[in-house]
Amino acid sequence: MLDPIQRLIASLATLPGIGEKSATRLALYLINCPREKALELSHAIADAREKIRLCARCFNYAEQELCQICANPSRDGSVVCVVETPGDLLSIERTGWFRGTYHVLHGCIMPFDGIGPEQLHIAELCERIKKNPVAEVIIATNPTTHGNATAAYIADQLKESGIRVTRIAQGIAPGSDIGYADQITLKNALEGRRDMNR
């Protein structure tokens, strides 16, 4: 049976991007930091797990039925930017340039991993567009093989809608992740988007 320090290290090492050395460093920091600070972190994690859910409209993280972006009347609901993850949404928001709304897929089509369109929020996107007037859908999936295949699938699903469907410009290097792109690259990618259905 693992002692408390080993259990903490093992738990931290399961986090994305955290190896055993980083997990050990974090565990030792948490053990040595003031008790209140460690408790504050554990309460923040528990609170987020308890209160955060998916937005009923765009599937971003939210505390209420709608996320802060969907609930904001100053956002342009006629433009919907489709992203793979809430992290991608946050990266685009940091540019301060995009004033439309979002739709979060929570992944991309990866048949070999058993992820098809049914496992993503693509059907909900199509339904949302039928119910609400939308002028443009910007597809901002990552420029990877899977991201491009997902973008093509969505564009095909929306072809008959008559809505303008655009793809972000490829200023983001193929195979890279939107979450790691800098703000200027993301802004340029959004501004240089191209039509997919024309």
Topology:
Blueprint: H1 4-12, H2 20-32, H3 35-51, E1 53-54, E2 61-62, E3 76-83, H4 86-94, E4 100-104, H5 122-131, E5 136-139, H6 145-157, E6 164-167, H7 183-191, E7 194-195
Parallel strand pairs: 3-4, 3-5, 5-6
Antiparallel strand pairs: 1-2, 6-7
Helix pairs in contact: 1-2
3D structure, described in words:
The relative contact order is 0.11. By secondary structure, the chain is an alpha/beta fold. The protein has two domains: 4-51, Orthogonal Bundle (Helicase, Ruva Protein, domain 3); 66-195, Dna Topoisomerase Vi A Subunit, Chain: A, domain 2 (3-Layer(aba) Sandwich), CATH 3.40.1360. It has helices at residues 4-12, 20-32, 35-51, 86-94, 122-131, 145-157, 183-191; strands at 53-54, 61-62, 76-83, 100-104, 136-139, 164-167, 194-195. Strand 5 (136-139), helix 6 (145-157) and strand 6 form a beta-alpha-beta unit. The mean pLDDT is 90. Helix 1 crosses helix 2 (20-32). It is elongated, with a radius of gyration of 20 Å. Strands 4-3-5-6-7 form a five-stranded mixed beta sheet. It has seven helices and seven strands; from the N terminus they run H-H-H-E-E-E-H-E-H-E-H-E-H-E. 40% of the residues lie in helices and 14% in strands. The protein starts with a helix and ends with a strand.
Provide a compact summary of the structure.
The protein is of the alpha/beta class.
